[in-house]
Amino acid sequence: MNLNFFFEVLIGGLLSGVMYALVAIGFVLIYKASGVFNFAQGAMVFFAALTCVGMVDQFGLSLWLAVPLTIVVMIMLGIAIERVVLRPLVNQPEITLFMATIGLAFFIEGLAQLVWGAQVHKLELPIEDVPSEYLMEKFNILVSQFDIMAAGVCALLVTTLALMFAKTKVGRALRAVADDHQAALAVGIPLQRIWAVLWAVAGLVALVAGMLWGARNGVQFALTFVALKALPVLILGGFTSMPGAIIGGLIIGASEKMAEVYIGPLVGGGIEGWFPYVLALLFLLVRPEGLFGEKIIRRI
Question: What residues form the membrane-spanning segments (predicted)?
Answer without folding.
Answer: 6-29, 36-56, 62-85, 97-119, 139-165, 194-213, 233-254, 266-286
